[in-house]
Amino acid sequence: MKVLVLTIATCFIFGILQAQTLAEVDFKIDSLQKVKQEILNEKKILDKKEERTDNLIKIWQEKKTKLAGGTASSGTSGIKAKVISSGGTLRDKPMGSEISKIPAGSTVYVQNEFSNLYFKVIYNGQSGYLSYSSMEQNAEIDKMMQKADTKTTTTSSSASSDPKYKRLKDVYGHETAMKILNGEVWKGMSPGMLMESLGKPVKTTEAKTDAGTKQIWTYSDKEVTILNGAVTTWTNK
What predicted TM-score, i.e. pTM, was given to this entire model? Predict the structure, then answer.
């Protein structure tokens, strides 16, 4: 009898303890769920603050672009291009005075304005002109040039009706225009003339020498050497 009473008492006490333990667990779960909800609410607030901050950053970047002449990368217009491994020179006008050196691999934004194959670009807050040969091959730039004037080959008899001839004649005169249209190369011609005559080279290299800046333009059928902005020699392959 005593054993039976003791067993019943033990079960009763255990049941009470178990109930208390489950109640505590439920309370703890409820507390943690409330904490989680508070965290979620705070996260929503922070997300909204982040969104407002991003919008403010965008607004101020646009203001910076206007003040710096379109230099902020997020708002800069133009064709994005990379400078070749030998670097480039930013000039105040086509073939003009140096503004600054542009390191190899730098990004420039090419504008729809060029003369004698010097393109107006924006680089690090500065606007100036960069030689076409100083930029890596870029299909968008080529397309822009083609729209301005598709390269043609003509003879003297049909030159007068060729828009390209008229443009070249205005810049270089009749004889030089004809030589360019016939794809000729000669000593002393400028990089712009060479580009007009043979088109874009397959490869360009540039190096500093005791005599000055030396460039080598490689085409499928010839290699042309340019020293200080003028053609000096060329060899056929």
Answer: 0.40
